[in-house]
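Lab notebook, page 48
Experiment: co-folding of the full assembly
Goal: obtain a model of how the components sit together before planning crosslinking
Operator: M.T.
Materials (sequences as entered):
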Amino acid sequence: MTDRIKYLLDERDMPGTWYNLAADLPGLAPMRHPGTGAPIVLDDLLPIMPEEVANQELSREAEIEIPEPVRQVYAQYRPSPLFRARRLERALDTPARIYYKYEGGSPAGSHKPNTAIAQAYYNRQAGITRLATETGAGQWGSSLALAGALFGLDVSVYMVKVSYHQKPYRRMFMETYGARCTPSPSTETAAGRAVLAADPDCPGSLGIATSEALEVAGGDPGTNYAGGSVLNHVLLHQSVIGQEAIAQFALADDYPDIVIGCAGGGSNFGGLTFPFVGAALRGGPAVRVIAAEPAACPTMTRGRLDYDFGDTAGLTPLLRMHTLGHDFVPPPVHAGGLRYHGMAPLVSEALDRNLIEAVAAGQLDCFAAGVRFARSEGIVPAPESTHAIEVAMREAVRCREEGTPRTILFGLSGHGHFDLAAYESFLTGTMREEQYDPDAVATSLAALPTLADA
Amino acid sequence: MTDRIKYLLDERDMPGTWYNLAADLPGLAPMRHPGTGAPIVLDDLLPIMPEEVANQELSREAEIEIPEPVRQVYAQYRPSPLFRARRLERALDTPARIYYKYEGGSPAGSHKPNTAIAQAYYNRQAGITRLATETGAGQWGSSLALAGALFGLDVSVYMVKVSYHQKPYRRMFMETYGARCTPSPSTETAAGRAVLAADPDCPGSLGIATSEALEVAGGDPGTNYAGGSVLNHVLLHQSVIGQEAIAQFALADDYPDIVIGCAGGGSNFGGLTFPFVGAALRGGPAVRVIAAEPAACPTMTRGRLDYDFGDTAGLTPLLRMHTLGHDFVPPPVHAGGLRYHGMAPLVSEALDRNLIEAVAAGQLDCFAAGVRFARSEGIVPAPESTHAIEVAMREAVRCREEGTPRTILFGLSGHGHFDLAAYESFLTGTMREEQYDPDAVATSLAALPTLADA
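Observation: model returned without errors.
Model output:
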């Protein structure tokens, strides 16, 4: 083959350890207890997660071994392919070399199983029989349902009610794996009942669903909570993406000048980019790293770096992160996975230290980029992933305008098979550009918890 | 890794030629002209397909080169992985070694792009600007839409009206690739208008949609027809599946005793199994080859080997094949890709010469097998593919009962992301066992064209 378009690794060449950026960010602010302001310690986490996972959450070690049973399950879809986007390069008439790391080939269709599988394994080892979690658009719930099936755990997913009804295929997907999917707010929890008492027609939110899952996990010794993003251990598990990419660039005899990922809670972004950031911090090649977020939920480009809750109800520890305030309800962009008021503390810290950049993109531009990508590369991307595509295309066009060939890598975090109604809305011209309300953000930020300067 | 579960090949190790079983079936009956009974010759085919494809349809050469531009596009998802189903083996407590060749990783989600890409390439080379085709459940239409986008061809898909409305995501998928999707019967063709005049509420059928596509292709010199199954050249293009599998078994230091594929028109089945059949005919290891068909559409197990039309309206040449009669309307099983009255002539001939076997499976058993597979291997299979899974599980259980370890290979032709409503119907107990009507088959067979003994 003259023009190679794909770089694979054998399952035996999968990384043996995950990479933890926390090791390379000395002075990283700890999670804090909302009542006392004290840094969170292991015992605070044990009611909802197994000790191994809690240790990873607090770890400052750079490398943490991937257990063999996790590698065995990873091997079904990992190492994921690194593609050279030659047809897209021709369509853009750019001198840039564009690569994308594709996570949509996992059985659940996104990068989310990378941590779902690890969390299911550790919980099973610890004797836990059930996992509870929340899901918005359903990518995370599907992935935990998959992992639960493979490790013999029951899975209860609280799915934001409006998505539960809008995306019945996602619910059916979870149920096919054997998971139980409940529209949230539900009558199963005190948190859900309180919301329903105030507003019986409440469409739900990720914050409410998280409160329900945490309540269920906290109230039953056999049940733990499993989180799909934001937390350190989640980003740790996702680092396998970037580590593989580095090995694949060696095969391609190339290395990226620019690495781009979409960012909602930060797990896809951190998973792809942190190994490159870490390599640069340890004397490797410098690389420009860009987080692409929705203009309608501009956590990094318009938010404040401060302590805030990870959920709406204020049940989580306080996290130091870029936030629009936990009361802020993002507009209904189709990229449901990017509709989150905060950003992972590790991503926030990297941004604050200028190790990465952040840019915002509008929904219409992103879907236009997604359609162009589908028609040149063949893969219909998830709405979340189109944000990375849009920003990568901007950079590729800049390479053309400046006459500078650069190597661009972006993360294609998932496919759009369950998001085709959004594509139809774009193609028929009925999709609108969603805008966030700056006043709502100001109000939400004014109400940040008082431990803000702890 | 101790227990390897995946065998990959590099894109540079993709087969350089397709394998044509017709070369190894001397005396294969020709297609015949419905008016004269004369064997079909090249000129008969040129109004609807390019010369290269027509030559392949009639070829008796064993190996036909895969053009480099086709290999370049194949490389996006090929060679497809060969998986060892270790978790399924444990779930079944079988001494059998079970492997599956997974085609669901293609951008369209099934094996269909293997021929769509080849046909789009040859048509583009021949100066054609548009392809017309029919689709039932939408796997084939999606694949041709993908191939059209990659080679710059317009694609018009006539989609069976009932599926068009039941499976809006499939239509949106095609439209995202830029294809035009029309519910059939439509007012765009004489064939469609005739049907609508007789029955304005007609839900459509694959036969009617085929007639519409053939009429459009025949009436415009810039438009050709592209078929997704049954024809020799389609099975030829699909042979890349089995050829890769043979190379992957060499990596695994194993070889199948039994090879199983689901069969509707025969393209997935022939693509997987013919290279194994050919190897055995040329002195290689003997292998048991089983075609799995729906009990509700038992073409091979209950049909007659005879000349019949490939479509309902009788616009195609006559094909010597196992058929239930072209007037037979199969019951609405969820495996839409297996709802076809006939079977590829090459598959029919192989069955007649006892080179392969055929078995039928009921829909409820197949979905039960599909759910069990999803929960052990992680992949939710297409309803069509569950037929192969069910038959593979039967053989694996027989290995346990007989205490005989055998190596079983089955084809997992696609994923079920667009078929989750069928899974819900199964999981909630509302799915029913569809039965074919023997009287309807008898009536349909009695009306076979008079050239039957040509």
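Interpretation: Residues 277 and 355 of chain B are 7 Å apart (CA to CA).
Next step: discuss with group before ordering constructs.
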